[in-house]
Amino acid sequence: MNRRLYAIHRWISVVALVQLAIWVGSGFFFAVVPMTRVKGTPVAGANTAPIAADDPLLSPNAALTKLAARGAVTKLELVGTPTGPFYRAKVGDARYRIDARTGESRPVDEHEAREIAQRDQPGSPAVRDAARIERDAEIEYRDRPLPAWRVRLADDAATVVYVDAVTGEVTARRNDVWRVYDFLWSLHIMDYRGRESFNHPLLIAAASLGMLTVASGAALWGLRAARWRRGGVKKRGPSSRAGERGARERPTES
Predict the structure, then answer these.
(1) Element (H or E) spanning 226, and its range?
(2) What is the full per-residue pLDDT of the chain (254 aa) written as tens digits?
(3) Within a domain: residue 247?
(4) What is the C-alpha end-to-end distance of the chain, expressed in Å?
(5) What are phi and psi of 162, to 5 degrees?
(6) Are residues 45 and 169 in the same domain?
(7) Residues in a beta bridge with 131
(8) Which one, out of 21, 95, 135, 235, has a CA that is 20 to 30 A from the CA of 85?
(9) Are the C-beta atoms of 112 and 121 separated by less than 8 Å?
(10) In angstroms, rounded to a whole number, what is the distance separating the alpha carbons of residues 156 and 118?
(11) Rounded Cα gap, residues 139 and 239, in angstroms
């Protein structure tokens, strides 16, 4: 029984070893790397600005009237930005931004997206390039609103700032540490494509295998401890092993 259990434990351990090592290594990374390095350190309030009380703005009712042709407005907010005051609205699943002074639609162009991204990061690093993403965003921008501007900055962390092309909000910040973290997270939860789910059969199977490894190891130690308590396991010296070897080699008398 012990030999069979040992063989089961050995082969389960061989199969589970790689994923167990990944869990330990990625968990160590998550524990020692501060989240401030993963998420970056954006400049708080960099893309907000005060709204002057005497600024001739459209009233909320007037803004609603402008948006009424697009459907039922479920959200309307007035925001002040370095570019000027805007009304941001949600109409069904669609998002809109209109100039709070004129009521004209004001989506974000590349020039404004670059300025937003630079202001967002300490030191206002230079922009490497900017591209508008309409669909099929990279994995690092999964499940975020589109269209968006992807602005790559020329800093040491290879920071990329994503700016909502409709509202002008910063919707994501990515850097090299975040990318390592995200890759290790995909290995940790074994969701290599979506990198979100940890309730899928592959992870459950690997976790079950890990539990079997622990359980079989614990059972082996329990059986060994029981033999020690009964005095069934004795330390054998060289003389006893030599005697056993001689007994095996002695011819059987007829």
Answers:
(1) helix 201-230
(2) 567 766 776 777 777 788 889 999 999 999 999 999 999 999 999 999 999 999 999 999 999 999 988 999 999 999 999 999 999 999 988 999 999 999 999 999 999 999 999 999 999 999 999 999 999 999 999 999 999 999 999 999 999 999 999 999 999 999 999 999 999 999 999 998 888 888 888 888 888 888 888 787 777 777 777 777 777 545 555 555 555 555 555 554 43
(3) no
(4) 35
(5) -100, 130
(6) yes
(7) 150
(8) 135
(9) no
(10) 14
(11) 66
Kindly report the number of other CB atoms within 10 A of residue 221's CB atom: 10
- Written as six digits, the tokens of 48 are 């907000």
Is 75:45 a contact under the CB 8 Å cutoff?
no
Q: In this structure, is residue 20 part of a structural domain?
A: yes
Task: Give yes or no: residues 164 and 136 share one domain.
Answer: yes
Domain count for the chain: 2
User: Are the C-beta atoms of 149 and 108 separated by less than 8 Å?
Assistant: yes
Both 187 and 141 in a single domain?
A: no
The H-assigned helical ranges of 68-200 are 110-120, 176-189
CA-atom Rg of the chain in angstroms: 32
Backbone dihedral angles phi then psi of residue 25, each to the nearest 5 degrees: -65, -45
251 falls within a domain: no
Distance CA 185, CA 154 (A): 26
Amino acid code (one letter) for 222: G
Please give the biggest Cα pair distance in the chain.
Answer: 121
Last residue of some domain: 174, 208, 240?
174
- Look up the pTM and report it: 0.79
Structural domain containing residue 105 = 41-174
Inter-CA distances, 102 with 57, 58, 64, 119, Å: 8, 7, 13, 26
